[in-house]
Amino acid sequence: MTELALIKNHPHKITLEEWDVQYRRIKKSGMKEPAYGGSLRRHADGGDLRLLKLKYDNSPAALRLWNFLLTEEERLHKARATGKKIIGTMKDLGTIPVMAYSMPNLVAFYPDGAWWTPCLEMSGELLGIADSLGITESFCPVRAMLGAFVAGDRFPIPDLLVCSVGATCDDFSAIAQRLEGLGHPILWWEIPHRRYPDEGEKAIVLPGGFAVSAAQIKFVKGELDRVRNALEKLSGYKLTDAELRLGIKSANRVRHIINDIRSAVFMAEICPLPALELLVAEMLAIHFCSDQNETIIVLTELLQEITRRVKTGQGVLPADAVKVFWVNPVADIRVMNLLEECGGRLCGTEYLFCHAIDHIPTDISPMEALARMALADPMVGSTADRAQRICRDMREAGSEALVISRIPGASHCAFEGTVIGDIVKEELGVPVIEIEVPPVSDSIYPNLRTRIEALVEMARAPRKLRNARNTRKKGR
Question: Which residue from 35, 71, 281, 322 could staple onto 459, CB 3.0 to 4.6 Å apart?
Fold first, then answer.
């Protein structure tokens, strides 16, 4: 304990036990906390056992980020108690919440997020419920969402469920249909497969760089109009275009801060923020963790900490850490720690919701802007399109290697990893690995470590070659 008590203020990754000491120290120094503040320990004591095995950034900003994430269910119950209507918006990842948070008496969240519950709780309870309903491990771990609805003790049952269907994950559609069969009505809206315009069709370039037919934007706008009408009916509030523009402005503010965070982390000479906290920060873009205003405060505080570290040349990893681009979110968040233990650093991400951090257009009608954002989803177009965006982002970030994290059972993961990996290797010439990460990866952790360590060593090889060449040149 004496050693733990000497934790310094400089950027550092610490265990939950060390956070206990750190929390007491910074609390004693006068740190002001929000209403949801407190020690991380209480979340582990409350059942989030995975927290016991993670390593965290040691800043007050990171503490606030984690506390904000882990108290979302409390906020949802409080929102209902104060008379607000709760919208469960599924699969579109970043579109419907912008509309919902433009209205004063609605709160939106993604029940999809329950897919991380088996990891956090290190329990198969929710997956076991899904199994009993015929949604077995042959499906994506998002099947835990079905278990959460049946258990009824994780989040409040939404007043309205909205789900995109069409060019979406087959697993998710099947799970959502099973959910509706259990008595949870769903408002379905269709998102078509994004296609390039035919000859003579008007083309629109979407945020993120994809091109699409104007006719498809018109169709999706019509679908979103149906959702807007349903939200108005539920809330008893007429949403004007002016109010929706303000909602888009607020959403863009969140997106801009997240992009500033990403840019600062990826471009820094020494990594100023661990991969785990960056994953959590990016996730807030999807539905603002049920509080848009607080999301802005939390992210701003985190950006300030990162900026301070960059200016002072401080970081949480060695300067020679290999820059790794990561594709797809991991079912077990502990693997983000593993990347850094193996000598890598996160330097570029594509977690399936990059359209949720792109700027929403403000120079067109707000509903058309949201339609464009929905069609900018990397999952509703071709894998080749997605790979091209990954290549572009890797070039900008200077990524030296690529990890593609397959999601167990996910229909879209069957072949897309191979396609993305082949395109990246051909265009960028960097090493690529595919790994599959279950909700609790402890049993295969040694294998994952070996594979990631091998990737890191392969990425270091060109560095060694360059250094050898430079040494020879100096010798001449």
Answer: 322
Model confidence at 467: pLDDT above 70: no
- Token output for 469: 């060449």
Query: Strands 56-57 and 13-14, how do they pair?
Result: antiparallel
The DSSP symbol for 66 reads H
What six digits make up the tokens of 87?
């919208």
Summarize the confidence of residues 39-47 as an average pLDDT: 97
Per-chain mean pLDDT for the chain: 93
CATH fold of 244-475 reads Rossmann fold (3.40.50)
Q: What is the DSSP letter of 158?
A: P
Q: Give the residue from 53, 12, 49 showing the smallest Cα distance to 338.
A: 53
d(CA 223, CA 237): 19
Cα distance between residue 394 and residue 384, in whole Å: 15
Task: Please provide the size of the chain in residues.
Answer: 476
| Cα–Cα distance, 109 to 138 (Å, whole number) | 26
pLDDT score recorded for residue 1: 34
177: its two tokens: 């249909």
pLDDT digits (tens, 9 = 90+) for 139-160: 989 999 999 999 999 999 999 9
Alpha carbons 30 and 41: distance in angstroms, whole number: 20
Alpha helical stretches, state H, 116-213: 117-121, 125-132, 144-151, 170-181
Measured in degrees and rounded to the nearest 5, phi and psi for residue 73 equal -60, -35
- Token readout for 191 is 């998102």
Distances (CA, A) of 256 to 86, 250, 260, 269: 26, 10, 6, 22
Q: What is the CA radius of gyration of the chain?
A: 22
Structure tokens given for 283: 């996730």
pLDDT of 205-216, one tens digit each? Answer: 999 999 999 999
With contact defined as beta carbons under 8 Å apart, do 375 and 203 qualify?
A: no
Quickly tell me which residue has 């379905």 as its tokens.
188
Residue with tokens 């840019």: 263
d(CA 445, CA 436): 11
Q: What is the DSSP letter of 203?
A: E
> Rounded to the nearest 5°, which phi and psi values hold at 323?
-80, 110
Average pLDDT over residues 315-343: 97
Spatial contact of 428 and 387, defined as CB atoms under 8 Å apart: no
Q: What is the pLDDT of residues 114-123, one digit of tens each?
A: 999 999 999 9
d(CA 90, CA 176): 9
Q: Which residues contact 219 (CB under 8 A, 6 or more apart)?
A: 190, 192
Domain boundaries, the chain: 244-475
What single letter denotes the amino acid at residue 151? A
